[in-house]
Write a structure and sequence with these properties.
Elements (H helix, E strand, L loop, with lengths): L3 E6 L5 H10 L12 E3 L5 E6 L4 H7 L4 E5 H7 L4 E5 L5 E8 L14 E4 L2 H10 L5 E4 L15 E6 L3 H5 L2 E10 L1 E5 L5 H22 E9 L3 H7 L7 E4 L5 E9 L3 H10 L3 E7 L6
Parallel strand pairs: 1-3, 1-4, 7-8, 7-9
Antiparallel strand pairs: 2-3, 4-11, 5-11, 6-9, 6-10, 12-14, 12-15, 13-14
The structure holds adenosine-5'-triphosphate (ATP), 1-O-pyrophosphono-5-O-phosphono-alpha-D-ribofuranose and magnesium ion.
The site of 1-O-pyrophosphono-5-O-phosphono-alpha-D-ribofuranose has 11 residues, from strand 9 and helix 5.
EC number: 2.4.2.17
Subcellular location: Cytoplasm
Family: Belongs to the ATP phosphoribosyltransferase family. Long subfamily.
Length: 285
């Protein structure tokens, strides 16, 4: 059987979580990333360790069948590469920033100005859409320093916490796009390999659903059961089991992990006790 070739970033911000998600879906990799490629022991997959910025070209050429990559890089260099699934990590924005003291009211303020960036295609498209003419300076790193050294009037780069902008005396003025790590596929992928990719997608789906959810168990007096069940936003209806202690039940359900803190006080106020919240590895609906 042929193996699906999947690219991950060799080192950098995507590496750890890319390897973690492969591990979580049961794909264990034989050898370390000192090699350019490694085979999985128990699944028809070969992992290629590459530069994030190089991956779109490898996908286009069909050198790899799929990849875990930053969405922003795909948008910049992607062409017709398909996003199979968003992966929920390495979230960031690609934004325009100008010196804090600069006057900025609209995109028109950038007309005739110099913009430093590593994302020229993304920037040019945004400028064209807004009918703005600006001169692009393409630089590959430390973009935020460009205004301070007189190289540019504005920059376009990745913003996450905003601390790099802050340290360089810049302010974010426009968001061009939002990005996260994604699973992407080559336009040249074969049917046979697409079947393997679909299995991976199915497993990732169940891992991501599990990460977003919690398994909740609690004890409740029987005369409060009905009220407590209406507070719980469960998947279906919760499981209710009698406790050894007369007049009490144990209630089990799955909830969105972000909802839990909103409802815990309500649950307690309605008589819930012994509340346990447990992680979920996988969730297949
Ligand atoms: N500060 C950040 N916070 C969150 N995500 C980020 C941040 N910086 C980058 N990212 C995301 O992670 C991806 C990889 O960033 P990283 O800096 O590791 O690599 P890169 O500079 O694109 O490098 P290379 O091509 O060398 O692999 C980016 O494309 C972006 O999607
Ligand atoms: O808003 P923040 O949380 O400060 O993050 C944004 C910064 O993070 C990235 O750089 P990175 O640290 O990846 O360094 P690099 O330029 O060497 O890739 C990006 O290029 C920004 O400079
Ligand atoms: Mg970076």
């Amino acid at each position: 059987m042929s193996k699906l070739k999947i690219a991950v970033q060799k080192s950098g911000r995507l590496y750890d979580e890319s390897m973690q998600i492969l591990k979580d879906i049961g794909i264990s990799i034989d050898n370390g990333k000192e090699q350019l490629k490694a085979s999985a022991k128990n699944f028809p997959v070969e992992v290629f360790y590459l530069r994030n910025g190089d991956i779109p070209q490898y996908l286009k050429d069909g050198v790899v069948d799929a990849a875990i990559i930053g969405e922003n890089v795909l948008i910049e260099k992607g062409g017709d590469i398909q996003i199979v699934q968003k992966l929920g990590f390495s979230s960031c924005k690609v934004s325009i920033a100008v010196p804090k003291s600069a006057k900025y009211t609209s995109m028109q303020d950038l007309d005739g100005k110099r913009i430093a960036t590593s994302y020229p295609n993304t920037v040019q498209q945004f400028l064209d859409k807004n009918n703005v003419n600006a001169q692009l300076h393409i630089i590959n790193g430390s973009v935020e320093i460009a205004p301070n050294i007189g190289l540019a009037d504005a920059i376009v780069d990745i913003v996450s916490s905003g601390s790099t902008l802050f340290k360089n005396g810049l302010k974010e003025v426009e968001v061009l796009l939002k990005s996260e790590a994604v699973l992407a596929s080559s336009p040249l992928i074969t049917e046979e390999k697409l079947a393997i990719l679909n299995t991976i997608k199915f497993r990732i789906d169940s891992v991501l659903k599990g990460r977003r959810s919690k398994y909740v168990l609690l004890n409740a007096p029987n005369d409060k059961l009905e009220e407590i069940i209406t507070i719980l936003p469960g998947m279906k209806s919760p499981t209710v089991l009698p406790l050894a202690q007369e007049g009490w039940s144990s209630v089990h359900t799955v909830i969105d992990k972000n909802k839990f803190w909103e409802i815990i006080d309500e649950l307690k106020a309605h008589g819930a006790e012994g509340i346990l919240v447990c992680p979920i590895d996988n969730m297949v609906l």
